[in-house]
Structures are given as structure tokens and as C-alpha cells.
Specification:
Shape: globular
Number of strands: 16
Oligomer: single chain
Distance between the termini: 32 Å
Strand content: 5-15%
Number of helices: 13
CATH superfamily of the largest domain: FAD/NAD(P)-binding domain
Helix content: 25-40%
CATH class of the largest domain: Alpha Beta
Length: about 525
């Protein structure tokens, strides 16, 4: 296949870009690839909402900017924060025009929620399935746009650069260029080539590198790993946000998220003794930023020898709770908990990667003709810790910015490399894997290493141990990769090991505790603020 625009990923970031390109160039082809179904994305699982300055009488851009900078703990790019906050409301209006339905009050105004780290009510939401509603609206718009080809069940193996044409490519090569991708057609089991003038990565997060995560099974860090293999720049991977309140269900993966909006509406965290403990850790109590709340819960669990704490909603208006959080209410009932009578058992779970593929203010990566946006990108918005409900906003703002930049870039690109100029994927000498356990067991080992050694609280010794064990897993998996035919399971394992390595390496380089990176051997913050670029 050949195309003008190729988008990897069908979440809010990828679809925002795809729609804009397709509408601007109705004569050009826009291809969107997803490795499962089109709606199976990280976007779909975003419960809480999207932050934006909506009520200008009570709120302001300055307040939203300040809240974001405080949450980011000194590492946000202030220029990027200002861009996202100020351009965000217009992007929200666009998705409303596409048909997204956000909850309203009886008077017809949008019902604005408040979450941890926010100084004002500014979260637009659709009950407790905001991301799913936004994804629905975008996919409906895509279905009515004739020049978008949406391809399901295709797994992208690698982006194609000069390396595949026989040239030496290193980190110092200053003109690395993306020509497209190699994809594994899951149905035909054939590896195919797609060349493109412009490629955008919107591949989501990497929560599956941990044993307990709110991320769906598809969140395996594919985009980050592919760019790293292609010698592109990755930054700030040590900042993994653990959502403080995932429903505690031993052995269940992914974990069911209890949105922060529950605490915004009055939910109170309590320990085994029934104490409301957050006041001991931060004056903002249950609405402190996520890094503080997650560490507080982790400390209470360790202190009391428990595997969870409780989120108490028994004092809240039941009718209002059921209306605002119907899926949470039903899920709790399924496991025998009536939220009006019993507190909800919760524990932190890996939730969001604040680092990723390094991009500039237009979504450009360090590789030519390649953009990245959404969770796989590191734009500079989040710094050391993401402010709640800023991620959907960031995805739409950078989908728009990458689109605007592409309008100029597409005019500069003289033709594209032909599919026949790209060598076929070499599978000679490889065979079917004889034992799938070599893949599944290694993945379990990886999840355990990352959860035990590179979680909410870290030490130098734990990080060293993690790196040694990851080295062994890497060697074993690469040996398997060279000897067998590729499969989605093997590719995801390779990508997860790469992501694990990048998280550990970033954590080892950061000799301080800042935001989501908390190392008890380096509790002081450094006066030298820096991004860890790998």
C-alpha cells in the first residue's frame, strides 16, 4: 500500500488528526491502522473527563496553567502548558460539534466537575465513561468521511527508515526519515509494507509493563519502542503515574478504574482503622495531585500490612452517585459492594506514562516526516506528573497542531519512496514458535520485575536489580525473535521489555525525587531541572 497520511492508532489523538487531514484533502487517502478493533483504545477507558476553562467568570487560563505547573513539579514546558490550556476549549467545542454529549445541569449548562490538583470546577464529563463517548463521536464522524480507510487487526512491527535501505543509522544521524511501516496482518499472518509521505504515531500508553494497571491489554508501548529502535529520541520515561484508586480485585487485569471524580464529588480515603488519612499527607487532602495520593495510599498499606485501602462514599447522595457514576455503581454491585452502605476497596495501579516520544510544539519527533501525539508522546505538558483530565485535552490539541504543520510539510515532500523500493520483510530461516510459554512466562516475569522494583517507591538497589534481570529477558527474547516467525504476542513482549528498560534507565539517571519518580536514596530535589533524554 501507498498513502499520503498514515496514522497508527485509533484513539482520540489519531482520529483527531485523521479527520482534519481527510477533510482538508478530500482527494488524498488517509489510512488509520489499529491492532485490534477501532474502538479498543486507551481513550475508551478514560472515565473522569476532559479539563478546560469553560466558566470564565469563576475560572481562568492562568488558574489552569498554574494548576498544571504545580502538578508537573517543575518539569513542565511552560510554553506548551500555555498552548494546551488556551487552545483546549476550542478543541472541546469541535468534538461537541462532532456529537460528543457531555453532562449538563438542569438549567442546561455543562456540569463541571473538580478533580485532584484543580483549583476550580472545569472537568467536562459524560457520566463515568467520558473517553468512550468521545471515541464514539469521533468514529461516527470517521464513518462519514469517505477518504479515511480504517484497517483493523494489523500489528505494526517497525517504522521504515534508511536503516532498511542498507544505510547506517545511529543516534547522531541527523536526517533519519520515516517512509512508512512494516505491518503484520493478523488475519492473513503476512507481513506487508505501507509507505507514506507522513506518518503519525498515536499508539497510546504502556501500562501493561506492570502487573496491575488500568490500561487495556493493547497498551504495550509499541510506538515508544519502535521509535527507540529507529534511533529516535525518547524522554522522561521514569515518570509513570499510578492512579491512586483502582478497584482492588486480586488477579484481575486490567484493573477497573474508580475515577478521581468520585473524590471530587466527596469520596473520602480511609485506612484499615477507618481513619481519613489524607490530611496527614497534604492540606488538599483527598484532592491532592495523584503522585501524592498514590504514595500516601502505598504508605498506609505498608504501615498496616494491607493490600488496599477504602474509598468511602457511604455519606454521599446515592441517587446523585448512581446518575454520575452508573458503571462504577454497577461494577461494585457485581462484586457484592453497595457503595451506599460499604466502602470500596481500592489500591494504586499503573495508569499513565508522562514521558514518551520527544516532540516539539507541533508534534514533530526527532525523525523526519514522523509525528507523535497522545500518551505515546512527551510534549512537555505533564512534566513530572500529569494533572487529572489533561490527557484527552493534550491529545486533541496536538492532533490539531500536527495537522497544521503537516499542511506545509506535505507540500515540501517531493513524491514518496515507492513500496517496491522497500525490501520485503526477511523471515527466512525462522519457524513457528514451539512453546508459547517462552513468551507468556517472560511477560509475567517482566511484570513482576517492574512492579516489585520500579513501582511507586524506588531505591538504587531495586533499580540495579531490575536492570540486570531485564538484560537477561532482553537477550532471551531477542534470541527467540531471531529464530521464530513474528507474532503479535512476541512483538508486544519485545516492546514491553524495551519500555521497561527505558523506564529503569531514566529512573537510574534521575538522582532526585520529583513528581512520580520517588527514590528513597535521593529524597531531595535537585536545583538543576532537566529532562532525561534516551
Amino acid at each position: 500500500m501507498q498513502t499520503d497520511f498514515l496514522i497508527i492508532g485509533s484513539g482520540i489523538a489519531g482520529l483527531t488528526y485523521a479527520l482534519k487531514m481527510a477533510k482538508h484533502f478530500p482527494e488524498k487517502r488517509v489510512i488509520v491502522i489499529t491492532k485490534t478493533q477501532a474502538d479498543e483504545t486507551n481513550t475508551k477507558y478514560a472515565q473522569g473527563g476532559i479539563a478546560g476553562v469553560w466558566d470564565e467568570e469563576k475560572d481562568s487560563f492562568e488558574k489552569h496553567i498554574e494548576d498544571t505547573l504545580i502538578a508537573g513539579d517543575g518539569l513542565c514546558n511552560e510554553k506548551i502548558v500555555e498552548i494546551v490550556v488556551k487552545e483546549g476549549p476550542e478543541r472541546i467545542r469541535e468534538i461537541i460539534n462532532y456529537g460528543a454529549r457531555f453532562d449538563k445541569t438542569d438549567s442546561g449548562e455543562y456540569a463541571l466537575g473538580k478533580e485532584g490538583g484543580h483549583s476550580e470546577n472545569r472537568i467536562l464529563h459524560h457520566k463515568d465513561i467520558t473517553g468512550q463517548e468521545m471515541e464514539r463521536a469521533l468514529l461516527e464522524e470517521v464513518s462519514q468521511t469517505n477518504n479515511i480507510l480504517l484497517i483493523n487487526h494489523c500489528f505494526v512491527i517497525d517504522i521504515i527508515t534508511q536503516h532498511h535501505l542498507g544505510y547506517l543509522v545511529t543516534k547522531s544521524t541527523n536526517d533519519i526519515t520515516c517512509y512508512g511501516v512494516y505491518v503484520l496482518n493478523v488475519n492473513s499472518k503476512q507481513i506487508e509494507k505501507i509507505t507514506a509521505k507522513i506518518t503519525l504515531l498515536a499508539t497510546g500508553g504502556n501500562g501493561q509493563v506492570y502487573r496491575t494497571t488500568t490500561n487495556p491489554r493493547i497498551a504495550t508501548g509499541d510506538g515508544v519502542a519502535m521509535v527507540y529502535r529507529a534511533k529516535g529520541r525518547i524522554e522522561n520515561m521514569e515518570f509513570i503515574q499510578f492512579h491512586p484508586t483502582a478497584l482492588y480485585e486480586p488477579g484481575v487485569s486490567p484493573s477497573f478504574l474508580i475515577t478521581e471524580a468520585v473524590r471530587g464529588d466527596g469520596g473520602i480515603l480511609r485506612n484499615k482503622q477507618g481513619e481519613a488519612f489524607m490530611e496527614k499527607y497534604d492540606p488538599r487532602k483527598d484532592l491532592a495531585p495523584r503522585d501524592i495520593v498514590a504514595r500516601a495510599i502505598d504508605n498506609e498499606m505498608k504501615k498496616n500490612g494491607t493490600e488496599h485501602v477504602y474509598l468511602d462514599c457511604t455519606h454521599m447522595d446515592k441517587e446523585k452517585f448512581v446518575h454520575h457514576f452508573p458503571n462504577i455503581y454497577e461494577k461494585c454491585l457485581q462484586i457484592g459492594i453497595d457503595v451506599a452502605k460499604q466502602p470500596i476497596p481500592v489500591a494504586p495501579a499503573a495508569h499513565y506514562s508522562c514521558g514518551g516520544i520527544k516532540t516539539d510544539e507541533m508534534g514533530r519527533t526527532s525523525i523526519k516526516h514522523l509525528y507523535a501525539c497522545g500518551e505515546c508522546a512527551s510534549t512537555g505538558l505533564h512534566g513530572a506528573n500529569r494533572l487529572a483530565s489533561n490527557s484527552l485535552l493534550e491529545a486533541m490539541v496536538f492532533g490539531e497542531r500536527a495537522y497544521l504543520d503537516s499542511l506545509d510539510l506535505i507540500q515540501e515532500i517531493n513524491g514518496t519512496i515507492r513500496v517496491e523500493d522497500i525490501p520485503d520483510w526477511k523471515a527466512k530461516g525462522t519457524g513457528e514458535p514451539k512453546e508459547m510459554i517462552l513468551i507468556t512466562q517472560t511477560r509475567k516475569e517482566l511484570e513482576q520485575i517492574m512492579s516489585d522494583y520500579v513501582g511507586i517507591v524506588r531505591t538504587d538497589v531495586r533499580l540495579t536489580r531490575a536492570m540486570r534481570r531485564l538484560d537477561l529477558l532482553y537477550e532471551e527474547t531477542e534470541e527467540l525473535y531471531r529464530a521464530t516467525k513474528v507474532s503479535p504476542q512476541l512483538c508486544e513482549l519485545r516492546n514491553l521489555i524495551t519500555v521497561g528498560y527505558l523506564i529503569v534507565k531514566g529512573a537510574q539517571f534521575r538522582k532526585e525525587s520529583r513528581g512520580l519518580h520517588y527514590n528513597t536514596d535521593h529524597l531531595e530535589k535537585s536545583s538543576l531541572l532537566q529532562n532525561i533524554i534516551l
